[in-house]
Every structure is written in C-alpha cells, then in structure tokens.
Write a structure and sequence with these properties.
Elements (H helix, E strand, L loop, with lengths): L1 H5 L10 H11 L9 E11 L2 E10 L4 E7 L4 H13 L8 E4 L4 H11 L8 E4 L5 H6 L1 H7 L8 H18 L11 H12 L4
Parallel strand pairs: 1-4, 4-5
Antiparallel strand pairs: 1-2, 2-3
Helix pairs in contact: 2-7, 3-4
GO molecular function: DNA binding
Protein name: Integrase catalytic region
GO biological process, one term: transposition
C-alpha cells in the first residue's frame, strides 16, 4: 500500500473502482472542517465521447469541500451541487461563495435562499480572479483523465472520480491525524480503514 502511495499510482482504476466509493465513505468522517470562504467552479470530463461537467468546490486554503458530476451546466445542476456541498459534514457554513460569471450560480443561489437552504447572510460573489484557487486545483483531475480516452459511462466516471478526489484530499492533508506530505501516515490510514496490514 505504501509503495503505491509513494509512487502516486494508487488511483483506484480498473478493477479497483469498486473500492473508490468505500474509501470515500470511510474517510469522510475524518475530514477536517473547512473555512467559511468557498470557491466554486466546474470543469469538463469526457464520458462516452461527450463532455460532461464536474462541479468542484474548495475553501480559502485549497481544501476540497465536495464535487458533483452532471450532464448539464445549468441552475438545476448548480442547485444539486450546492445542496450536496452543504450536506458535507466537514463543510463549514459559508460566509461567502466565490463563483465565476456563469449565470446559473446566482439563479441557483437565489432559489436555495428562498427555500431556506442557504442562509440570507451568505454572499455570492462573482469574480473570476478569485476562483484561481479552484481552477488550479482542477489540474490534478485533468492530469489523471486527459491521457485516457475518457470514461465509458457516467457510473464508472463517478466511481473513479470519487477515488481520485478522496486520494487528493488525503494528499492535501485534509484528514485528521495525517499531515500533507505524510505518505506513511496516508498509507497507514487507508490500511487501517480497510483492515489490512501494510
């Protein structure tokens, strides 16, 4: 296990896809709380030769809040993503949500405020330069997905992306008791969560 992590090849691909959702489920309770300043953006992933949208959010320190795969890039997809992110146990209620100029975000935010899902005091700020942090964070996904020919179904894309995202959270030091760069600690945690010897 440690050898795979050290070589940065423990990416839960092929027959290991089945473990990605389980890894995410077991790691989530150990994630450190986020800050109250969110950066939200979406990037493109190829599934069955078509582009789909991976919504992602990080906090002001670059820690991943949540992610969501959608066939569409509209207010309904943005609402689903916001609801999923607000439900994440480690996501601190935001003081401000920074987004780009995508018109779907203000509409989604207004509807969620009206429904009581987002607090009234939360500010939605549309400023592209403020989202550089999340745009830079997309790079690790692109680095993993770009060399391949894309995914063959939404299901396999979602399973694999969950593994990518959780391993990236581990590497960024988002899990309690394991610091950034502590490869041995990361390997030990995964081994412990799955009840296997290193």
């Amino acid at each position: 296990m440690a050898r795979f992590l050290r070589n940065r090849k423990f990416y839960l691909i092929n027959d290991s896809q089945q473990y990605a959702s389980e890894l995410e489920r077991r790691c989530r309770p150990y994630l450190k709380p986020s800050t109250d300043s969110w950066r939200v953006d979406e990037t493109y992933i190829r599934v069955k030769k078509e582009w789909v949208y991976l919504y992602r959010a990080v906090d002001s320190q670059g820690n991943t809040l949540d992610f969501f795969l959608s066939l569409t890039r509209d207010a309904e997809a943005a609402k689903c993503f916001f609801l999923k992110t607000f439900a994440a146990s480690h996501a601190t209620e935001p003081r401000v949500i920074n987004v780009d100029k995508n018109a779907a975000y203000p509409k989604a935010c207004a509807e969620l405020k009206a429904e009581g899902h987002i607090p009234e005091h939360c500010e939605l700020r549309q400023a592209k330069y403020l989202n550089n942090l999340v745009e830079q964070d997309h790079r690790f996904i692109k680095r993993l997905t770009k060399p391949g020919m894309g995914f063959f179904s939404m299901k396999t894309a979602w399973q694999t992306l969950r593994g990518y995202e959780m391993m990236n959270m581990l590497r960024k030091g988002q899990v309690q008791g394991v610091e950034k760069g502590d490869v041995g600690g990361q390997a030990a945690l995964v081994a412990k969560l799955f009840g296997v010897a290193d």
